[in-house]
Amino acid sequence: MKNKLKLLLYILITVLISIIAFVGVYTSKTQFRENALPDYTLSSEFTGKRITYLEVDDSTNDVIKDKDGNVVESIPDGANKDDYTTEKVPVNSEEVKTTENYKKVKEILDSRLEKFGAEYYLVKVDEQNGDTVIELEDNTTTDRLLQDLVQKADFSIVDSETKEVLLDRSYIENTSVVYGNNDSGEVVVYLDIKFNQEGTNKFAEITRNYIAQEENENQEDQENQEEHNHKQVSIIFSGTTMLTTSFEQEITNGELTLSMGSARDNSSLYNYISNASIYSVLLNNPELPINYQVATSEYIQSSMNQNVIYFIIGTIAVICVIIAIYLIAKYRTNGLISCLGLILEIAILLILIRYTSTIISLGTMSAILILIAVETYFIIKILNNIKENETYENVASTTIKTYLDTLDLIVVFLIIAIVFTFMKQVWVYSIGMTLFYGMISIAITNLIFIRGMLLEKYSMKK
Amino acid sequence: MIFTKGFNLGDEYSNYILINIYMNDTSNLQDVKEIADQVLDQDFTVSYTDEFNDTASIRVKSISDEQLSNLKEKLKEKYSFQDAEDNIIAINVPSTNIYDLVRVYIAPMIIALALVLIYFVIAFRKNGILEALLMPIITVIMVEALYISIIAIFRIAITQYIIPVGVFLFILTLLANAIYLKSRK
User: Fold this and answer.
1) Chain A contact set for B20 (CB, 8 A)
2) pLDDT class for A83, splitting at 50, 70, 90?
């Protein structure tokens, strides 16, 4: 009687968990009845993607030259306008619009997106005209990502007055984000730009020539100093002046350390670190050989409609039904108990997927099919062993022996799950996470429920 | 077949034209569909591009300049656009390079295969190193090659399902190897 009740309890728990997983738990906290379980997180395959269209910039810039042919920013007030000429210079010259450069653009964008940590991206370049389409996940970071992605990322240190380029990005060896503390005890985020050997020498020369002189009492020195104090460099990144400064002393170690901001709170620090990391990624990758402009950037709904999702779920259900029919036909009551176990395994997995916000992609579906196959293998192996020795003691020992016997399969399974989980791309890690949580649900189902139900059944015979 | 004709890219990955229609108000997809039906002479899909349902998107394999200007004219008339050029933007989406779809899976598959092989060599050393090492490599390569060959020979369209199925076969082959090697231990 006690065993019967226990068996019934197992069945009830299985049914209850299955109802929670497949139907949900509806509460009426608000005026609407809502499922208390978290929603599934669907990948862009099922929802939609941000499709951004970049076109080669065909615009022109006005370049003003004085009568000596020097480029100036603007015509000074009161100057004779006839002494200046304005030329329309294309942002992209015809020479840069080559197939080779278009291919290079794709490589650079791919590399930047990978380094930015984009979970899903696809870059498509028309090698005839350079027009580029980028597919991304649509979320709160997408706009910022796009804004940083299309930066040309040219870098130069120029004389702030003459605009003479003193050093450009070809001298950069690498960049990194470093941290320090200031006198107020705040954490300071720095972008550390390390120059190559030639760049180190050039940078040392620049810092020597642009030192901010301390005030001198000597009249003659003061005149020289005034001239010196006005000499400053501008650090230009992607056409924007980041900083105009002079140096306190000569820098000979070939490192330019730029402060990106200081803060005590995590949120501000995170922003500074993100900004510094973006600069670092852009400077560690080549600059875009062509200037692009964003023509459109729209969220496009997935072409995979509801029917396709129902078809996939239906297919998985049909496979489960076929397995269930086979198990019940061959193993009778034991087969029925195992079928409950199979349903419970999927139910636990679905609950875990919801609570861990595991992203559901098409890969997840294939992972679920693998889990069903593995669980079926476990069940058949156990039931084959039990059939011959139908005593309580034998059932208890053979189930454990069977699980130990499948240890190699579990290890291989876990290796694959862990490797896939630690990948950056959403479609890959979603498979890994599903396999991992699937393994947990298989363990719970087999060790607690299927084994428990079988033991209760055979203890009734005892 | 792969080297001569290549793969048959499905609609999702082949070149297509995307026409975004920026409405001034919430649009009715059926209206857009009817107008597109009058102009386009091939299959197309119409969907919303945002949650506010004020931007519709027509996706079609190709469109001639004449059809596009005709479409713009009809949409301009229907939705009283001041300037169709501002409200209707057609973009040419180039075809996808298959390598771009596959490459994210290459590293995890190679790492997983390498780690599993190390485990097989340690766990099934009694079976002989050659069997523990070569058997999984050969079967994985054969299964994947067979799968790719079937796709190429039967001109099966490359869709979003193709790669997950390939990964499914890869994992299943490794698990099957574990069972086989265990049975031979």
Assistant:
1) 296, 298
2) confident
| 3-state SS assignment for residue B26 | coil
Q: Does B67 touch chain A (CB under 8 A)?
A: no
Q: How large is the ipTM?
A: 0.87
Which 8-state DSSP code applies to residue A170?
A: G
What is the C-alpha to C-alpha distance for residues A250 and A102, in angstroms, rounded to an integer?
41
**Do residue A373 and residue B172 have CB atoms under 8 angstroms apart?**
yes
Dihedral, CA atoms, A407, A411, A413, A414, nearest 10 degrees? Answer: 130
Contacts of B143 (CB under 8 A, 6+ apart): B169, B170, B173
Q: Would the CB atoms of A415 and B112 count as touching at under 8 Å?
A: yes
Q: How far is CA A372 from CA A350, A376, A379, in A?
A: 13, 6, 10
Pairing label, strands B55-60, A155-159: unpaired
Closest CA to A315 of B117, B51, B138, B161: B161
Tokens in use for A304?
């995979």
User: Domain A2-44+305-461 maps to which CATH number in 3.40.190.10, 1.20.1640.10, 3.40.50.300, 3.20.20.140?
Assistant: 1.20.1640.10
Chain A residue closest to B99 (CA)?
A122
Domains of chain B: 16-93 (3.30.70), 98-183 (no CATH)
The confidence score (pLDDT) of residue A105 equals: 94
> Side chain identity at A316, as an amino acid letter?
I
Q: B57 — contact with chain A (CB < 8 Å)?
A: yes
Per residue in A220-251, pLDDT (tens digit) is 555 555 555 568 899 998 888 888 988 888 89
Q: What angle do CA A417, A47, A367 make, to 5 degrees?
A: 20
Residue spans of the domains in chain A: they are 2-44+305-461, 48-301
> What is the amino acid identity at position B34?
E
Classify domain A48-301 by CATH number.
3.30.1360.200
